[in-house]
Amino acid sequence: MQRICRSLASDGFAVYLIGRRLTNSPNLSPEIFCQKRLFCLFTKGPLFYFEYNIKLFIYLLFKRLDLLCAIDLDTILPILCISAIRGKRRVYDAHEYFTEQKEVYERQTIFRIWSLIEKWSVPKFKYGYTVNKHLADLYYQNYQVEYQIIRNISFKYTLENIDNEKVNKFIIYQGSVNQGRCFEQLIPAMNAIEIPLVIAGEGNFLAETKDTVRRYGVDDKVQFLGRLSPLELRKLTQRAYIGLTLFEAKGANQYYSLANRFFDYMMAGIPQICVNYPEYVRINDQYQFAYLIPDTNPETIAFAINNLLADDVLYQQLRENCLKARDSLHWQNEEHKLLNFYRKLIRE
Length: 348
Description:
With about 350 residues, this protein is an alpha/beta fold. It folds into two domains: about 170 residues, Glycogen Phosphorylase B (Rossmann fold, 3-Layer(aba) Sandwich); about 160 residues, Rossmann fold. Helices cover about 45% and strands about 15% of the residues. It has 15 helices and twelve strands. Helix 1 crosses helix 15 and helix 2 runs parallel beside helix 3. The longest helix has 17 residues. It is globular and about 60 Å long.
């Protein structure tokens, strides 16, 4: 969201990014757009969603604005209500297919509630965008809304000269530690891998992942760094040897995903182990910077990592392809779609 807000603010839009504040939230970094955090007494579950949505509604009710954007389904209700009350245009930024997340569709009561919200609200959002064609097609098939495709691609930046530091090799997973991200398969695979794994992120599956690390006795091979700032994460990723983009095949949100980290590893110039799902295959067929695997069994993950560690020729080829792909797969090219979307919407 920071990337999107910076692009819009640089183009002359007055942008307000609203989120939530936790007791352990780091201080906000200075930005060229306005930022607001709403504090909630509850931090998870139905009470959190109820409290946050009510506070967001009240805040927006008295805020000067011309256009509202809901980021995923968990903010869609107050945006819909405020836009209707105040007669303002609304946009749906569908980073994912919310009801197809594992933590949603495996809990039937939760799934039914979010599905009702989705069926009632999404058709009322005529304008929107998502991250790839497969998800755009799903939104059209289910709700007859034509959403544009704006991919979450990294900014292009200058790489640090750190080749000599890769003697101390490590694997990196960056992003949310959530269900459906294959930690149940990755952690046991570490028993067959010599170099350590660094996990940079937090999420709803963090405690279970730490329990899995202890259960498989790989405490000395797995390090949890928690949530890092974007700059810290960028520097760390460049020092890694291999990145991981893993999702379970269950659920459209995972199978048709196009994760930020897929591009982040490429931008950092490091090869990655990635699932061979449709969107990753389509991009990798053209650029060849990822090692795609047919399934996420522990044996498959371990074999792929060890093969990449042992085959210097393959590793260097993938790394060189990362460096070439950086010249075209970057946000400075992708942001034109975002700016054209909002410019056109403002003119209508």
